[in-house]
Specification:
By secondary structure, this protein is mainly α. The chain contains 19 helices and 2 strands. Strands 1-2 form a two-stranded parallel sheet. Helix 17 crosses helix 18. It starts with a helix and ends with a helix.
Length: 368
């Protein structure tokens, strides 16, 4: 780590400490009188902690918990359809209503809480309906839509780039912009109205210049207060960092792809650089930009262990992309006979009779 990176990290930690201290001091009963800023920050944190859920998402989740045979994977996917549901379930599983060890993903949380526990938590949440918004700010629905779209994009990117800990990544992607909601509580919804032509990175720079903090930092502090795994808060904090790697880099690219799909200004060179940080070339980036916003259904993540080797997955992925043995062999620098052997092993291991069935099985189980 360079001296500049060490200095930048120290500055981030100092700012995070200041943000957290203000919120904590505002909550101390009988303690020294905190500043008005600290009290307002603590109130904003509490408001977003009680984030309402989309009414339709909660209705479907409760219906699913009432049905016999609903799997934890199905329940987790429904929880992940709404940030409010995900926050409530993850907090419950990490703060006394679940096991003592922290859980990293929604499916782990569902397993720890049981379907009845998830149902009970969902039943306590306030909801909003985008058709009848009433007193709930439209910012909640904008946040939910962007959060869910970014989660889908992050899952697709991680699948292509073969990045692990996908359940933790899904939570971080859902919550990556939660700091926006906190800042809206502090400064009003108009704080985030972007000037014409402002990019997401421009907005972060404007926040730092005008407020002394940015939404990624504020969101990370709140996630730490919720007791979620440090890897999740770290991914949220660093998703706008120019040297982001791993999960933060995946979220940065996913966020940019979704903004691009929404018609927001995102420079092409930023997209290329962001893709490069996760090991994706321009062809992969073109595929991402094609898939969003009208891409197919999300690949289901599965906790079922994959019996295939890395090379077998590589070969099967080539088949899924419509390539012939010779093309796959050239791309992997292997012989055609080796590719044929790998694919025969794939068929045997997963019980497929041909390439089409092998691809369908692997996609359904989230292996490719």
């Amino acid at each position: 780590m360079t001296a500049a990176q060490i200095s930048a990290k120290g500055e981030r930690l100092t700012k995070m400490s200041q943000v957290a201290t203000k919120a904590q001091s505002a909550e101390k009963p009988g303690g020294s009188s905190p500043g008005a800023g600290g009290a307002r920050l603590a109130e904003a944190f509490e408001t977003i902690t009680r984030l309402p859920a989309l009414a339709e998402s909660r209705r479907r989740l409760i219906r699913l918990t009432d049905s016999e045979g609903a799997s934890s994977t199905e329940l987790a996917e429904m929880v992940e359809s709404d940030a409010g549901l995900a926050i409530a379930v993850m907090r419950a599983a990490n703060n006394g209503d679940g096991p003592s060890a922290r859980v990293g993903g929604v499916q782990e949380a569902v397993d720890a809480l049981s379907p009845s526990g998830v149902r009970a938590i969902a039943g306590t949440l306030e909801t909003y309906d985008p058709i009848e918004l009433g007193s709930f700010p439209m910012a909640y629905e904008r946040f939910r839509r962007h959060a869910v779209a970014t989660r889908h994009a992050a899952d697709r990117i991680a699948d292509t780039a073969r990045i692990g800990q996908r359940d933790e990544l899904a939570v971080a992607a859902l919550l990556h912009d939660v700091g926006h909601l906190v800042l809206a509580q502090l400064y009003g919804e108009d704080y985030g109205n972007a000037p014409h032509g402002e990019t997401p990175e421009d907005r972060v720079r404007r926040e730092r210049r005008d407020l002394g903090i940015d939404h990624a930092l504020v969101g990370a502090v709140l996630i730490r207060r919720w007791g979620l795994k440090p890897q999740i808060s770290a991914a949220v904090e660093r998703h706008h960092a120019p040297d982001a790697e791993g999960h933060p880099a995946v979220i940065a690219l996913a966020d940019a792809v979704v903004h691009h799909a929404d018609g927001d200004p995102v420079p092409t060179d930023f997209l290329v650089i962001a893709a490069g940080r996760v090991g994706l070339d321009e062809d992969h980036l073109r595929a991402l930009l094609y898939d969003f916003p009208h891409g197919g259904a999300q690949r289901r993540r599965s906790t079922e262990p994959c019996p295939l080797s890395t090379r077998e997955i590589d070969a099967l992925r080539g088949l899924a992309e419509g390539k012939v043995y010779k093309q796959i062999a050239q791309e992997l620098s292997l012989s055609v006979s080796t590719i044929r052997t790998h694919l025969h092993n794939v068929y045997r291991k997963i019980g497929a009779v041909d390439r089409a069935q092998a691809v369908l099985i692997a996609r359904d189980r989230g292996w490719i």
